[in-house]
Amino acid sequence: MPEDIFEESTIAIKATLKEDGFFSGSYTGKLDLIYKKNDAEISRDANIDVPQGSVDRTYKVPKVEGTEDTYGLKVIANYGKAKEKTRVLVDATVWPKKVKLTAKNFVGDVPAKNLPYTIRHTSLWFGKTTDGHTNDAGVGEEDLKKSPYTIELKAPWEIVTNKNDAHKREHDLVVRNNPKAKFLKPDFSQDCYVAAGTDNDKNKGVRHYVNMTTADNGNDAMGNIVEFEVCNKEQPQGIKDEKIYIQVKFTKLSKRNLPKPALLAPCEEIAEKDDGKTLTGSVKLPANGGSAKFKLELGYAGGETFTVTCGYSKDDPTDDKRILVSWRKLGYQLGYPVVMKARLIERTRKDGNKYYDIPDSIKNVVKTRLDAVFVEYENIKSHEYPNPPAGSAAIVKTKFLDGGNDNTELYVLDGGQNWAVTATPFDAAADNREIHVTLCDRAYSSGGKVLTPTLILNKQDHELSIDPEHWHAYFEKTHKAVDTVNFKTAGYEWKAKMDLVSAPDKNKKPSFDSAHTAGDGGGERKLIISEPTVGGPALTVTCEANNSISPGEKAKIKNYYEACFTDAKKLRQAKNELHFQVTGPTGGDGDDVRLQAVQAALSEVHTASAKKLLYHPGLDDDGNPRTGPMSDVTMGHTNRIVKKFTLATGGVDKPGDFIGAASADKCPIAVEFSMDGTYAINGNAGGGSQLLVLRDNVPGPCAGTVCHELGHAMGMSVMPLTGGSKYPVPPGITTPKHVDNGGAYYLDGISPFTNGIRNLHRGPHCSDGMPTGKRPDSKFNDWSPGASDNVCIMWGSGGDDDNRKKYCTVCTEILKARRLTDVRGDWDGRAEG
Amino acid sequence: MTRQRTLICALLLAAVCAMGQNRPNKKSRKAGGKPTPTWVNNGRSGMTVDISEFRLPDDAFWQSGADHGRDPLVRKYKTEYFGVLVDAPREIALPGHKKLPLISYYMGSYQQIVTRSFADHAVIAVMDPDRNELYLADAEEDDGERVQVPNTTKAEDLPQGWLANIKELDVRERTRVPWRTGRLISQIVLLDLPSNRVETKIGSASSFVDPAKEKFLAEERGRQNPPAPFPKLPDSAYAQQAGSLPIPESNGIVLQADRVVVAEDKKPILLQGAFRLSVLPEEQVKADAAAYNKEHSLTGYAACLTIHLLVVGTGQRAPFQYRLQIPVKTVTEGIASGNFALDLTTLPDFPISEQTLFLYAYAKESATEPVTIGVIDRRTAE
User: Fold this and answer.
1) What are residue A462's DSSP bridge partners?
2) For the whole prediction, is pTM greater than 0.80?
3) For residue A419, which of A335, A472, A483 has the smallest C-alpha distance?
4) Which distant-in-sequence residues (6+ apart) come within 8 Å of A624 by Cβ?
């Protein structure tokens, strides 16, 4: 086995030569020593005398050339008479003794002074390393050991290039100190980035709005794909084609799988582990001092935290870090009239512009509830518009709605917003991520009906509640058109309720009197009886010789009297009064006696008569209950429920003159009219618009309504609908269960009440928080949450109790998984749920 | 028949026989399903109303903004009738109109009206008589999140007078009834107040008819097998027994149940029915489908008729609908008659609770008046 020797060392060549075999005598004669380098002769000592078989010489070993790592040295002895005998006296590997490093710093191309290095002798077991430092010229020189070697730099230095082409032990090193990678983009110092945490530390993560459209490859905190840019931390130290490794760890809380979070090309060596929670890859710098880009698909789910790191270490590429938390941003335009301004709050945008918005008491609650599903709901623009003209449908005083004396004007809208006549249009939606919210103080459904009461009044100025049960709320103005009076009276009539007047009170004996008129009685002992208004032709009565009235004449008088009733209409026109006149002479013998006798007979007939006339102020001349146009009745709107009816007076046909409790001269009056009925709602939503009643007196429930309606816009709840109204499950999410298969979702519909169909509310909703025992019933046994209950925001109705404080677990999972690039369109037009 | 089924059958029949002596619903014994749908018998008002001379012309249903408070029906009946009347177009041209307008008039005195909430209980029932399909929906729908107002009104606060609550509805939109040529019979049921029924022809005389298509569809229906009897009962439950209701003399259905029942654990609530009805091709049992008939318990029957049972109640706002499949032994000249007796508690989710129920039956042109069952719930709490 060859021995290892250094170059330029002096080796001793000693040998004992025999003449022949081992037991022969010592050789005596001539000897040639041949020196071979790598089997090529480099030197020869010829004809050396060997006196007693002993050779003892020295040899200085030649240097290892710069082109060589080592070389093999052999010293061969040729001896014998003809020098026919050969013996290898030395067989060695010659190692170089010195190595020289000349190091320059990659930055600045200047000598790398005091550069700590290690010469590692790779074949040695012991003493294998030699440490050293370069001098001020960047040069270091070290002794080598008889071993191959490598050159290493001590951290934080590293070798960029190592050239020793001209001389293998003269290394021209280019070195650099502490190579680290860093992110150039995204740049969290930009204003568009908002810290994800409450401590406002962007290093701990920023909100990235995956549903927004980016204008800068995701470097504006928007978009589901983010382009990252990496480089050497000291950018000039970046070296062409060197790799910077990428690692992405994300929480993978959502089961949404389309698009799946992933590293995208030009990232190379893409791999994933930890069930897809860790993604790795690398990029190459395109040039010295250059930077490399790669893209990361974040998907659309909210609430995922992406910790993206880069570095030069493949195993631990954590030189720099970016943490993005996926959020979704939705916006709203807000419309309100001036009258509501006092109930709003002034805010300031980043550009300094001021605007009015939903008060903090509501907005903060909305924010808290939407934070849980990683949704921001921000005001994009507020539209303040003039108040509707006084007296219009949409401006109503509080006292009208609620009673009392509060003159505060409220903005009142119908469900279809037909009353919002002065509202300025919202700006055309810039995209499908915004909702148009119209604020109002009260709202009433457009699902109207017509109510036609027939009310019985008994006072000329009669005030009463016409809807005491509040089945229907209605307005002074119709919900259909603002210029039409809600209470329609045209074509309707009032009517005297004579059926409520007792028979004695309306069947009356006429009043009676008789008077004497001097004149010709028509002959001896004759007098003439007449009733000028209702009586027939005058009756001539002939008295007896004793000036009395015979039975026959009395019968004639009775007939004449009763004939006065023949024309009831005429008698009513005569106010049920009989005024008889008795015409005869005066001053003669017996004239006065006969006159008294006739008048007495008339009075006797009247007294004895049972004749009565259907006569009452509530009856017309024909004896029918009086009726007339409703224009005789003035309707006063004391408030929404209480109306005041004032009946006209001043004529026999005016109801105000005879209205009253049923009596001989009064009767109740029935009035009839129609009105448009509706009912109060907290708001509604659909097609990207929302009508919101600003209930700042109950901010929690109002916020619940905002979140509920926005929840629908975001695709809640998931039920088997079809067409544009279907709410599909986000890809990767298991279809949630409905109330008939162990879940909480339900949808209104018709019998049979199976497959989650129930008979309440409108649209798909969630019953989480309701006692499960109620679920089988088609109306949930008419259960509704009380003040202390806690139901899902997507429960189908709300009141004044703050019992819809959060989305339930199932709804939260779906909402976090939603692709919220569109909250306006039909689902047919929404991609990927 | 198993021993258990025999016992149930015996109990059922014994109870049915006893029903005739146990304060039956007298009015339910009248045959319903009058072919003239403009009539309505209203037990509450004690009136039989024929609205035919007070109906609106068809054009009126397509006018917007009309004040229906002056409609002839209102002027005629508002102060003397308590109940619901409905009117709808006699004919709707296709293609063209896409809705089935219906005007509902709920009328009565204030004191009467408050006893039945139209918003809570009114149900639209629309029948496609040619296909014998019944569609239901709430008559009122919410337009937004309704503000609940507590009802605290005292009787003395009610105004003296009458009220007509008039609602314009789109039956098609509300019930989602398929929109196709044919006839639809619309009605509103408000607990024990059924309205008159109005028939609307969908598709005018000028509508195009494809005879080949009609023939194909008719043949297809003719090949269709009827479903199995429902509820599944012993044969005797579908046979006439002593105490069974008499078969109506003309096409129609009658129902009978005890006026008051005490619901106790495992105690049946019995409903008797008798009917005379036309038979649709798809209701006929096909002789050449022996395997199907055997599998669906139709062997030995000539037809299996669908009778829709509608159940509404004072304690619930939801209507319940059951599709009874009643087998009959014979069909004569396209007409079948028969009886059935069933335990209502065996129907899925039958709404047993402390309330008063009103049961209606529908089949083709026929409909019954309500059968009233006052339920006293004495079941053991679960």
Assistant:
1) A645
2) no
3) A483
4) none
